[in-house]
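ok here's UTP4 protein, seq below lol
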Amino acid sequence: IGCEDGSVKIFQVVPGGVQFERNLDRRKGRVLCLSWHPSDTHIVAGSIDFFRVIDVASGQTVQRVMVNHHVEKAKRECVVWAVALLSSGTVVSADSFGRVQFWDWEQGTLAESHAVSTSAVLSLAVSQKEDSIIVGTSTGATYHLQLLPVRLGGLEKRWVRTKPFQFHSHDVRAVAHSPTALISGGLDAQLVIRPLMEKVQKKSYDAALRKFTFPHRRLVSCARKARLLLFQFSQYLELWRLGSTEETGKDGEVLPLCRMPEHLVQLKSKGPEHIYCSCVSPCGTWLGYSTASRFQLYRVRCDGDGVSLGKV
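and the structure came out like this:
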C-alpha cells in the first residue's frame, strides 16, 4: 500500500483478512502508484516528479529517478500516475505530460520515450508476455503499444504505438490487459472490452466490441400486496397499478386483461440533482427517494380510483 505521507506498507494476506507486516523506506512525496516486480524482490513507487525502486528484503530505496528533467523549461510538476516493473528490470512510467517512458532502473537512464497524448496518461497495464501495453488518458482515449522487431526477422525490438481508440468521453482511470482483449474503465461509467483481432480466430462473442454502462441500479420497485410498480427516472418517478386478469394459465402464457395497467401519479424531484435511488413499500402505502444530498418520504393514499401523495 502506498500512502500520502510517502510511506509504503507491506501487508500479509492471512486466512480471514490482511495483517500489517512492516513499513518500507519512507521518502518525501505522495505515493500515487505501485508495481511489484514479477519475482516479488522489488517494488516501484511513483510520486510527483520522480519514481523510486525499493528492495523488499531490506526495505531500502535502491534507485530514485527524476522523470521531469528531460522536459525543457518544465515549470509545472510532473505527476507519475502509473508505473509497471517488468521482469527485465525495465520500469514503465505514465505521467501528466502525456508520456509513456521506459527506464533502465539499475542505471537510472531513459531508454525510450513516447508522447502518446497531449493530456495526462492516467492508467497503464501490461500483458502477461510483457510485449503489449495499454494506457488510458484524461481525454477518454486509450492507446496500444507493442514490442515489435525493428526489422522483419531481426532480434532487436522497440516499443511502437500501434492503435489509438476513442471509446470514452472522460478520464480513463483503469485499464486491464487480458490475453485476448484490452479492457478500459472511464469516469463516464463505461466499461469497454475491445478484442485483439489478431488473437481471435473466428467470429464469436469474444470477437465483438462490448460496452457496459455502470453502475447498474434497480430502477423499478414493486409493491406486491398493492400490485403497484414504481419506475425511477433521473428527474421524476412514476407510479403504476398493474393490470389484472380473470383467466388462469401456465407459465409463459399471455392472458387477456380484464383491467389495463393504470398510470396513477408522476412525482417530480425539485432542484437540479438526479434521483439516486427509490423504493415503494410492499403494502404500497409509502414511497421514498433519495438524491445525493437529501431523502424524501411520501405517504400514498388511494381514494377509490384516485391517488394522492402526502409529503412526510
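fwiw The chain has no helices and 26 strands. kinda neat tbh
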